[in-house]
Amino acid sequence: MTDISEKEEAFLVSVFTEYKVKNALDCACGTGPHLYLLSKLGVRVCGSDYSDAMLKACEENLSQEGIDVITKQADFRYLEEVWVEKFDAVLCMTQSIAHLHTHEDLVTAFKSMRERLNDGGILIITQGTTHFTLQDRFRFDLVVNNQDFSRVFSRDIGEGFQTINILDIYHSDKVSKMETNSVHIKIILDDEYKSLLTEAGFSQINIYGGYDMSPYDKESSWKLIVVAER
After folding, report:
1. Cross-strand partners of 145
2. What pTM, to 2 d.p., does this model score?
3. Alpha carbons 197 and 209: distance in angstroms, whole number
4. Rounded to whole angstroms, how far apart are CA atoms 181 and 152?
5. Bridge-partner residues for 170, per DSSP?
6. pLDDT by residue (tens digit) across 117-147?
7. Whole-angstrom distance, CA of residue 211 vs CA of residue 186
8. Are residues 119 and 165 in the same domain?
9. Count of domains in the chain?
10. Residue 157 lies in a domain
11. Going by C-beta distance under 8 Å and a sequence separation of 6 or more, which residues neighbour residue 127?
12. Contact predicate 106/217, CB 8 Å
């Protein structure tokens, strides 16, 4: 059920080993791919999401794989309202944080995530928006293209925000249709992450440009990955 690449899996294994992570909270778990992966790797995981529909799909996916994970509906600005337990790692993956649009909401969310961490715990954030990928030549992106299904992203970039238009194309022998959707998200890059996370109380803030943990490069990085220590 996971679309997580081998490179991302290797990155998570490396970071979790370095920081001795035994338990983790995915606070924007979506349909559950990271919960599935980390469970398979022996990490005790919990998951939450703002969307009840996403949580339902997540629970169904994990159940089909025979995996039992505690999941709860939660706004990641206010995790303390749902989670009492503290964790060695909190994950907020695939640009989920960018759905918050104001400085106040972002700092509130990062403070809430920090409070759910044990001393020495880490927050991990990943996204595909970088200085490099915001160039106009990457406005259109074929992100999935297999025998039965294709997905195309097109982006409209404004001042501090981007609208990602999603075109899903179903082209199997049984189904032939198209569906469209759009999301409007904030553009958050390396310097703003450092400022926000520092304000929220994080200490060491590491910004990487790929799952190989190479330094973030504004001229060439395809990924922006944050590992921030409590």
Report:
1. 150
2. 0.94
3. 18
4. 11
5. 149, 177
6. 999 999 999 999 999 999 999 999 998 899 9
7. 23
8. no
9. 2
10. yes
11. 94, 95, 97, 98, 188, 223, 224, 225
12. no
Q: Which residue type occupies 174?
A: K
CA 69/CA 45 separation, integer angstroms: 7
What whole-number percentage of the chain has pLDDT above 90?
96
Integer CA distances (angstroms), 129 to 122, 164, 209, in order: 21, 11, 11
pLDDT at 3 over 80: no
144-198 pLDDT, tens digit each: 899 999 999 999 999 999 999 999 999 999 999 999 999 999 999 999 999 999 9
DSSP assignment of the chain equals: -----HHHHHHHHHHHHHTT--EEEETT-TTSHHHHHHHHTT-EEEEEES-HHHHHHHHHHHHHTT---EEEE--TT-GGGT--S-EEEEEE-TTGGGG--SHHHHHHHHHHHHHTEEEEEEEEEEES--TTTTSGGGSEEEEEE-SSEEEEEEEEE-SSEEEEEEEEEEESSS-EEEEEEEEEEE---HHHHHHHHHHTT---EEEESSTT-PBP-TTT-S-EEEEEE-
pLDDT of residue 1: 67
In a domain, 1, yes or no: no
70 and 155 belong to one structural domain: no
Residue whose tokens read 């995981």: 45
Is there a single domain that holds both residue 95 and residue 160? Answer: no
Q: Are residues 54 and 121 in the same domain?
A: yes
| Structural domain boundaries enclosing 92 | 6-130+188-229
